[in-house]
Amino acid sequence: MENRSAAAAALAFLAVAALCCAPGAAELARLQHPPKHDGSLSLLVVGDWGRKGTHNQSRVAEQMGRIGDKLDIDFVISTGDNFYKNGLKSVHDQAFEESFTDIYTAQSLRKPWYLVLGNHDYRGNALAQLSPVLRKIDDRFICMRSFIVNTEIVDFFFVDTTPFQLNYWTDPGKDHYDWRGVAPRGKYIANLLKDLDEAMKKSTARWKIVVGHHTMRSVSEHGDTKELLKLLLPVLKENSIDFYINGHDHCLEHISSRDSPLQYFTSGGGSKAWRGVFQPNKDKLRFFYDGQGFMSLQLNQDSAQFIFYDVSGNILYRWSSGKTGHPRSSTYLDEE
Ligand SMILES: *[C@@H]1O[C@H](CO)[C@@H](O)[C@H](O)[C@H]1NC(C)=O
Questions:
Q1: Would you please indicate which residues are annotated as catalytic (active-site) residues?
Q2: Selection from 210, 266, 206, 212 nearest residue 35 by Cα
């Protein structure tokens, strides 16, 4: 197990190294992560966590370790806001170990972590957090702006959502955002949407999942992110994306789109929570928990099962979706 995960991380590292050095490569970085021998895949999703163990981060981490072991997870996804309050200062920032390495210590979590950046990560040295040098300290940490993880049955499209939100550019207040390698916004977003659309059109995986930091639909503090609804959502609908998974709001949510099969899942309960905010949403709210916790996802050719857990590892909510028939003409069976 230990060897396999180290090997996977090493392969991922090489793939990234090859891509970042290819001149003019416009395609999104693509990593391969094979499923289990029976073709299934299981993983955990956590977001909004890096607080040096405080605000119940350590308790959530402990339960992730326990559930991760039970489900024999293949990897972990982080929906961003990996380090509070202002990302990492440099690749030598102690926060990397204090909030990540020293917290997620369970054997079952010694698997690759695929991470996106959140808005708080952009408030520090974003390039440090993206640097492969961090893998010399902890080889699990695979953080890029936008990239694809191909697992045969699922294509995961990780999307850098922070640059979408206009007021970070126009009205940053006293926060500073590290836009190196991103500005100007319009060009960055146009290129990203084009690359995503092309990659999604080429995907032949049974399931297609998009992961970002910001909410599309949310009933909590931040609510919907209107730039994502306007710019990213049409690309997701056009390409029959099954699920959009995000953090940003510090809670757990499941919302169903009313005009497409798309399902929205928020897993942003990695540490500080209990905001006490509820604002209604136009889509169909199925589940909302304002406290700490995390999510598991188990997939095979025919079904996808989502489970939300609280800070003590209790199951709060379970939902599954099935696909029958030929992958190209699948029908959705809502099993709730
Ligand atoms: C941590 O979790 C416990 C159990 O749910 C809760 O009572 C406590 O308020 C939480 N602490 C914080 C800081 O959220």
A1: 222
A2: 206
